[in-house]
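Changelog entry

Holo records now carry the ligand SMILES as an explicit input line rather than a separate metadata file. Below, a converted record for 2-phosphoglyceric acid, shown in the new format.
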Amino acid sequence: MTSKLILLRHGESEWNSKNLFTGWVDVDLNEKGVGEAKNAAALLKSEDLLPTVVHTSLLRRAIHTAYLALDGCDRHWIPVRRSWRLNERHYGSLQGLNKAEIREKYGETQFMAWRRSYDVPPPEIEKDGEFSQFNDPRYADVPADERPLHECLKDVVARMLPYWESDIVPDLKDGHTVLVAAHGNSLRALVKHLDDISDDDIAGLNIPTGIPLYYELDENLKPVVKGGRYLDPEAAEAGQKAVANQGKK
Ligand SMILES: O=C(O)[C@@H](CO)OP(=O)(O)O
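Structure line, unchanged by the conversion:
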């Protein structure tokens, strides 16, 4: 028996369009992002891929996207589980800063190391800084020493995988069609795991906003088709290029 897993990065956010490092800052979708989330619903419906359970992060851009995508295919009523472990990568002291300005100031190599290297985290954020979430009540249950002040992708893999194993895998094994509505980098971490992508190669992988990525998984929860399948491959390719080029304008 195979399992059905749908990964959905949130639609474009207010800060995506302003080219700002976002991370754990809780910005909402912009108008385009709302449209993308509604379009994701149409894509799911057209393939009869109707989720029976949804997992989201604790950030409104993913929660809002999940709601719109489910509402649009009459699945607004399914069980929802949320975890900080699906949050975007914490971008440390870069949160709130402009990507093009950081690229200009530190140069392409450092900029790309912070954005896409597997194990170079950006500088830590001050706990009480303007864009810090250290004292946000939604993370009160996360032990203080596990609440990140910055993260590289390796750190995201380490905090996301326990949730994959403890909460998402059991739903897949129970026969659910699982929707995971999350973020560019938490989904890169999950795709790295699913497709067994090397630490070097993951640097080249970008996830577009708002386009469902469908994985059929075998009994060992390995993809039947490596890389899965975007429900709108053309739009996905254009979206991936746009993400890769962020900071260049
Ligand atoms: O700013 C961020 O939080 C992420 C996703 O939007 O950006 P990047 O693609 O540069 O990792």
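Spot-checked after migration. Residues 16, 21-23, 88, 91, 115, 184-185, 243, 246 surround 2-phosphoglyceric acid (CB under 6 Å). Helices lie at 14-17, 31-46, 60-72, 99-106, 108-116, 153-173, 184-195, 233-244.
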